[in-house]
Automatic annotation (TrEMBL):
It comes from Stappia sediminis. This is EamA family transporter. Belongs to the EamA transporter family. Its main location: membrane. Residues 24-155, 172-305 form the EamA domain.
Length: 323
């Protein structure tokens, strides 16, 4: 889960720390790499279980992971009813995203979902404006448009008729709904998170999401033949519960206090490229030239944001020295 990244997208630029910048950039590259693996892994394991049962098990395991971390830090406490309600709402958004992702991956590819995920920053910007009246720079808006163009090229290639009709398959439509929920996650965290330690609030979010999944997914959970689920599927669920949850929390937190928000946001657009490379590494075929073209267009947004933000940060440092 990439809560720290999502929260940083619309925040003020972080103070420049040149000594730690390289490590921060490496942390964000590892962050996006780990997040990108959720799509091929999800594509591999989604047919084995109902998405609600699969997501419930992931949330349950992630809750235990975070509970151990919070207890070790001495931050555990039970939420008040108001805190529980806020965390449950945020957790429900996250739970819906993962259910939609696993459901969508039953009918579409990891590459298509990875391309659609590049639209999340644009959705987040729209929801943040409606909910918090937060705005973006013209350059950020331009990069959102570039990323959107790249996603369309990946999805439609040379199928002009489908592009003009914006025709999406069931899997893409389902995942797109999940992306809307995920895009709403960041603004609602900013609006509903109070003075609680972020790690503790994240634990409450996981607990609330698991509770809602249990409530609405109980028939699927009870009807699942858990004994016949392949061990590789359980391995995939454990992987998703641990690395893309706990590790990415620390990676994004490390980077967001050392890099300007524009540079952090820029790494999101590399995700489709990572997904394509991972699919090739595991021997799942070579994508078409149009897919490569779309991925390249999306990645272009990363380099534009990195270049422009780096120049801005350098100017701010020179200005500070002059003063």
């Amino acid at each position: 889960m990439n809560q720290p990244l999502a929260r940083s997208v619309h925040s003020e630029p972080a103070p420049a720390r040149p000594a730690g910048n390289l490590r921060a950039h490496l942390a964000m590259l590892l962050f996006i790499l780990v997040i990108s693996t959720t799509f091929p892994v999800g594509e591999a394991i989604s047919p084995a279980l109902d998405p609600r049962a699969l997501t419930f098990l992931r949330f349950l395991l992630a809750t235990f992971v975070f509970a151990g971390i919070v207890a070790a830090r001495g931050e555990w406490r039970m939420p008040s009813p108001a805190q529980a309600a806020r965390a449950t709402w945020v957790g429900s958004l996250l739970a819906f995203y993962f259910v939609a992702m696993f459901e969508g991956l039953r009918y579409t590819t990891a590459i298509n979902t990875g391309a659609l995920f590049a639209l999340v920053p644009a959705m987040t910007a729209a929801i943040a404006w409606l909910l918090l009246r937060q705005t973006m720079t013209r350059l950020q808006l331009a990069c959102l448009a570039i990323a959107g163009l790249g996603a369309l090229v990946v999805l439609y290639g040379d199928n002009i008729a489908a592009l003009l009709n914006l025709s999406l398959g069931y899997g893409e439509r389902m995942f797109l709904l999940g992306c809307v929920a995920f895009a709403a996650y960041s603004p609602f965290v900013r609006k509903l998170h109070r003075s609680e330690p972020l790690m503790l609030f994240t634990l409450w979010v996981l607990m609330g999401g698991a509770a809602m999944l249990f409530l609405f997914g109980l028939p699927a959970i009870l009807s699942a033949d858990w004994a016949k689920v392949p061990w590789t599927v359980y391995g995939g669920i454990v992987y998703l519960a641990v690395l893309p949850t706990a590790l990415t929390f620390y990676l994004a937190k490390y980077a967001t206090v050392r890099l300007p928000s524009g540079q952090v946001m820029a790494y999101t657009y590399l995700l489709p490229a990572f997904v394509v490379m991972e699919k090739m590494v595991i021997g799942d075929g070579t994508p078409s030239l149009t897919v490569f073209a779309g991925v390249a267009i999306t990645a272009l947004a990363t380099f534009i944001l990195q270049w422009s933000t780096r120049g801005s940060a350098k100017g701010q440092r020179l200005s500070s020295v002059a003063k």
